[in-house]
């Protein structure tokens, strides 16, 4: 892994791919994503900063097959068609037991694990930091030239019972990823202006 070099703004192509032209896709083309690209998406996602470097996000990449059929049963009716069309659906989850890896992810604080004995505190931290990393995940997908279609519309408790009954992972979001299909975009909804949503003090 390289050390940080001089920082500079990304070029216009990158700015378009990451922000200006990037849209939420509502249908996907029948174009594959390789395992190497999924590994790269994961690698880029995990580089984003999290509190104490705790890295509570977990990702299950689901391709066509038995697992996808099961996943689709947990997705809201209004989301089924778009989820079905994507070559990969990523189940993003928070690992409630992320503290068991803190000796690896935060070697500078040997006693860090002890501060997460309380399950409620740990669960909140796990979910908050997984959501933060979910943003990095979507930007990583876009950086590789694919579109994302995030979905909160799914039955989390049923999905967790199906996919995570034996683990400490808990789903937070499902993200469809792939190249855009037919009529993939809705009209862009307005964004709040600087005056409506920011301050410089
Ligand atoms: C966490 C999250 C959950 C979402 N859930 C759904 C969903 O269940 N169904 C859906 O059609 N769109 C869903 N969306 C898509 C948003 O409505 C969309 O990203 C937003 O309106 C911005 O659209 P744009 O990227 O095209 O500007 C979700 C987005 C996010 C980030």
Describe the model.
- With 201 residues, the protein is an alpha+beta fold.
- The chain has a single domain (25-178), classed as 3-Layer(aba) Sandwich (NADH Oxidase).
- Helix content is 40%, strand content 14%.
- It contains eight helices and four strands; from the N terminus they run H-H-E-H-H-E-H-H-E-H-E-H.
- Strands 1-2-4-3 form a four-stranded antiparallel beta sheet, sandwiched between helices.
- The structure holds flavin mononucleotide (FMN).
- Flavin mononucleotide (FMN) binds next to strand 3.
List its traits.
14% strand, 201 residues, single chain, NADH Oxidase, globular, 4-stranded antiparallel sheet, alpha+beta, binds flavin mononucleotide
Describe the structure concisely.
Helix content is 40%, strand content 14%.
Number of domains: 1
Which value, in Å, is the CA radius of gyration? 18 Å
- The fold-level CATH name is NADH Oxidase
Order of helices and strands: HHEHHEHHEHEH
Task: Report on the biggest sheet.
Answer: 4 strands, antiparallel
Tally of alpha and pi helices: 8
Spatial ordering of strands, largest sheet: 1-2-4-3
> Low-confidence spans: pLDDT under 50, at least 5 residues?
none
In CATH, the architecture is 3-Layer(aba) Sandwich
Distance between the termini: 38 Å
Shape: globular
β content, as a range?
5-15%
Quaternary structure annotation: single chain
Name the CATH superfamily classification.
NADH Oxidase
CATH class: Alpha Beta
Q: Which structural class should the secondary elements be placed in?
A: alpha+beta
